[in-house]
Design brief:
The complex is a heterodimer of chains A (230) and B (304). Chain A has two helices and ten strands, in the order αββββαββββββ. Chain A is α+β, with helices and mostly antiparallel strands and 230 residues long. Chain A has an eight-stranded mixed barrel. About 6% of the residues of chain A have low confidence. Chain B has two domains: 153 residues, no CATH class; 133 residues, no CATH class. Chain B is rod-shaped, with a radius of gyration of 31 Å. Chain B starts with a helix and ends with a helix. The model of chain B has no long low-confidence stretch (mean pLDDT 88). Classes of the chains: A alpha+beta (230), B mainly alpha (304). Chains A and B meet through helix 1 of A and helix 1, helix 8, helix 9, helix 11 and helix 12 of B.
């Protein structure tokens, strides 16, 4: 009687660990999607474009002759400021600002000009848009798998801070936007002072022809008036 | 496995136990591996400073066309020991920042390098009959900029784990709370595993030997779930597929990842091995209890 019962239990004894493994594998797979995505974003930021280059082939450094200038941006300026001032026009390919907001969670370097090479290094500001501190629309874009991975988490009312070496500019998110890649409505010059941030809409597979972003209105201008900012 | 009730409750407790066991293994390995000492040792083992030297030589040789300064002006003033010292400092900086400190790396001076660049500039000025007029002469500004640039490039190349880049973008600040609580998480995971083992004892209080089976099944599943991805990563040599531009960063990162994966695989193998031991013990106890049950049955038959 006891032997029969034990024989009956053998398949259950074998199936149970398999079932346990399958259930846990399913839970891990479902739970790991977001952290894995975050890890990929951080790895992309750390290595920038260099992950895609061959370490033993000098010709694979595909900057196409572009001179990328990485300036140090002052983030802790504590000197006097003024509401008026003169912005410094950056050179094409120059890192001239840093965008920071709680939703992004990281300090995003902003390069002047938009090229695929610059997009590997940070966010890019369209050279046909306004330099920070000048009246008009400052349009900044970045890849969704690197620097603007969390742009979709930005909410209306969030504060966005832009640091440059000549001033600090504070914006408030006014409107969240979504538009087609061929729609230029949001990236054309405007009469008001605004910052437009945008990136590709995340798709499960392949590139997206939709863009998402945020329109931010300028709330505070603080031009640095002391030399310490340089 | 007497009843459906005890089976289901044991199953649920085992699922939780699997996660706490994987968590314990992960935290123990991370806590012992992600240390300044271990990463420093790894760069020494892999002779990363030699790779930094080669990469710098390549960079300064390529720069010759732009600056007109031959690579040997820089390279003769550098050696593996000096570069290793900067690599160690960069790792120290990274871990201090991960520990939420405002630590700033000390400035590295290299008199030999400064003298070498100064001598080159002097010789060059003489060769073209350039006359240095006063202290504000552009000659000094150029010389200063050449020295600063050389130091900046050397520091960049020695940051083999890219800690400065991660810090600049605020990534270290974001990861810091997780890193700082690794020891607490380790203790919590081990504690939770012990509590879940007790829960399994309670679920199987009528047949306590079944607890051995459930803990064994959990340990086996945890070992398989943690170990299979590691075996895949090692067998396919996954990390070698990374194409990172600078060979010193490539070597530092890939060797760190390989070592971490191997350590985690070892922890998973220990879990799987302990599962086998628990299954054997369960088999022995089951056989013994069957024998005693049979004996009792025989005695009862004799009496009737």
């Amino acid at each position: 009687m006891s032997d029969k019962k034990n024989k009956k239990n053998i398949p259950l004894h074998i199936v149970t660990p398999v079932l346990l493994t399958a259930v846990c594998a399913g839970i891990i797979a479902a739970a790991a999607v977001k952290p894995a995505d975050k890890l990929k974003t951080y790895a992309n930021i750390a290595f920038m474009g260099s992950l895609k280059l061959d370490p033993y082939d000098p010709s694979s450094d595909k900057t196409n002759g572009l001179v990328i200038k990485d300036s140090d941006i002052e983030l802790d300026y504590s000197g006097k400021t003024s509401e008026t001032g003169e912005p410094e026009r950056p050179a094409f390919g120059e890192l001239y600002a840093v965008v920071s907001t709680d939703a992004l969670g990281i300090n995003v370097p902003v390069y002047w000009g938009t090229t695929p090479e610059l997009l590997e290094h940070g966010a890019c500001q369209s050279s046909s848009s306004s330099v920070f501190g000048l009246k008009g629309n400052s349009v900044v874009s970045a890849h969704v798998d690197t620097f603007f991975a969390d742009l979709s988490s930005v909410k209306e009312g969030d504060t966005v801070t832009v640091y440059t070496n000549y001033g600090k500019f504070t914006y408030k998110v006014k409107e969240l936007i979504e538009f087609g890649s061929d729609n230029r409505k949001y990236i054309t010059p405007t009469e008001d002072d605004r910052l437009t941030l945008y990136t590709c809409k995340r798709e499960l597979l392949g590139a997206s022809d939709r863009r998402i972003g945020a329109i931010c209105e300028l709330t505070k201008k603080a031009f640095y008036t002391e030399k310490e900012a340089d | 496995m007497k009843s459906a009730g005890s089976y289901i409750s044991s199953f649920i407790a085992s699922v939780l136990l699997i996660f706490t066991l994987i968590g314990s293994a992960g935290c123990i390995v991370s806590d012992s591996f992600l240390t300044q000492k271990r990463l420093t040792e790894l760069t020494e083992e892999k002779e990363v400073s030699g790779l930094v030297y080669k990469e710098l030589d390549k960079f300064f040789s390529e720069q010759y066309a732009v600056t007109g300064i031959p690579a040997n002006i820089y390279m003769d003033a550098l050696d593996d020991e000096y570069l290793q010292e900067i690599i160690n400092e960069k790792i120290r900086f990274g871990f201090m920042r991960l520990g939420n400190s405002d630590y700033i790396s000390p400035e590295f001076s290299n008199e030999k390098l400064d003298t070498s660049i100064t001598d080159f500039y002097k010789e060059y000025a003489q060769s073209i009959n350039y006359e240095i007029k006063n202290e504000n002469d552009p000659y000094y500004a150029k010389l200063k900029s050449a020295k600063e640039n050389a130091h900046k490039v050397i520091l960049q190349y020695c940051d083999v784990y890219k800690f400065s880049s991660l810090d600049e973008h605020g990534v270290l600040r974001k990861v810091s709370p997780i890193y700082s609580s690794l020891t607490t998480m380790k203790i919590m995971c081990i504690g939770a595993s012990a509590i879940l083992a007790l829960v399994l004892v309670v679920c199987n209080f009528k047949r306590t030997k079944d607890t051995l089976y459930w803990i064994g099944a959990s340990a086996l599943s945890a070992g398989v779930l943690g170990g299979v991805p590691c075996i895949y990563l090692i067998n396919t040599d996954y990390f070698s597929a990374f194409t990172i531009k600078q060979s010193q960063i490539y070597t530092a990162y890939t060797s760190a990842m390989r070592t971490f994966t191997s350590s985690f695989l070892t922890a998973c193998c220990i879990l799987a091995a302990s599962a086998v031991v628990l299954f054997i013990l369960y088999g022995i106890f089951s056989a013994l209890s069957r024998k005693s049950e049979n004996k009792t049955a025989d005695v009862n038959t004799e009496h009737t």
